[in-house]
Amino acid sequence: MATKWSELRISAGSFDLNKWLRGGYEKDIITTLYGGAGSGKSNWCMLAAVSQAKKGKKVLFIDSEGGFSVERVRQLVGEGDGGGVGSGGDGGVEDGGKEETEKVLKNITLLNVHDFDEQKKAFNSISKYVSENFSLIIVDGMTMLYRLAMADAKNDEIKLRGVNQELARQLKILAVIAREKNIPVLITNQTYQEFLSFEDLKEGKKPQEFMVGGDLLKYWSKCIIELKNFNGKRKARIVKHRSLKEKELNFYINDLGVRRRGWI
Question: Percent of the chain having pLDDT more than 70?
């Protein structure tokens, strides 16, 4: 008997994103969204979280960057304007007002972490939060606090090794949960620019952007999507995927979510 797409993926919360991803995010893997500040990473996370919570599913949202916004939840639910996630082809979810917003917020378990030690403690107890009714795990800012911890340990090889090992442990925990419990994991990651010498700049060479965490994130993530913001013109690019080839999507963000940008 053939397996349905809905059994292999969850909705990304947007008709256009679901179409681009051929059904949404795969359930048994880590998907990494990476890009610079303002590229839309947190919005993509919020969109997926609200989509699942509106369906009565539980979501674990670990936030290290303060990106989770109750006001944004209200917008995506469509409180007061009849819109929201669901009205744009997200699987027929009913729209609602304040009661719907409260329902969504009750279905999202939010863990705020403020340093890498707190992030470590959150991952130590992650299994107690994840039950059969959980349909999504989000870590918004997987490497921000890791990056700060690396900076604090820059002159201590033992501490540096320990920080890297801890990040690897956390990624392994997420990968095991995704695979064994069939729960999709969505994480965001920052970028950094390579250092160029004066001679390179003089020759007109432009610095390349790289994903923080490098090989660790590439190894554990079976899907990697790059998000960019060129003066308000946003673009997503599939860098790695198990079944989709590399492709791009021009998109914009509004109160109701993420939409594909046309030629105009």
Answer: 86
pTM of this structure: 0.88
CA 89 to chain centre: 21
User: What DSSP state is assigned to residue 39?
Assistant: S
Three-state DSSP state, 146? helix
Nearest alpha carbon to residue 188 among 77, 24, 43 = 43
Q: How many other C-beta atoms are found inside a 10 Å radius of the C-beta of residue 107?
A: 20
CB 33 within 8 A of CB 187: yes
Domains of the chain: 6-260 (3.40.50.300)
Query: Taking CA 11 as the corner, what is the angle to CA 27 and CA 98, rounded to the nearest 5 degrees?
Result: 125
User: What tokens appear for 124 in the block?
Assistant: 């130590």
Is residue 240 exposed (0-12), middle (13-18) or buried (19+ Cβ within 10 Å)? middle
Separation between Cα atoms, residue 220 and residue 209, nearest integer Å: 20
What's the N-to-C CA distance of the chain in angstroms? 44
Report residue 138 as tokens: 């989000």
Rounded Cα gap, residues 223 and 243, in angstroms: 10
Phi, psi (degrees; rounded to nearest 5) at 250: -85, 130
Query: How far is CA 255 from each of CA 20, 39, 43, rounded to the nearest angstrom?
Result: 20, 16, 10
Burial of 108: CB neighbours in 10 Å, binned 0-12, 13-18, 19+: buried
In this predicted model, what pLDDT tens digit does every residue of 17-75 receive, in sequence order?
999 999 999 999 999 999 998 999 999 999 999 999 999 999 999 999 999 999 999 99
- In 11-127 the beta strands, taken as DSSP E runs, fall at 25-26, 30-35, 58-63, 108-112
> Kindly report the CA angle at 71 between 254 and 57, in degrees rounded to 5?
90
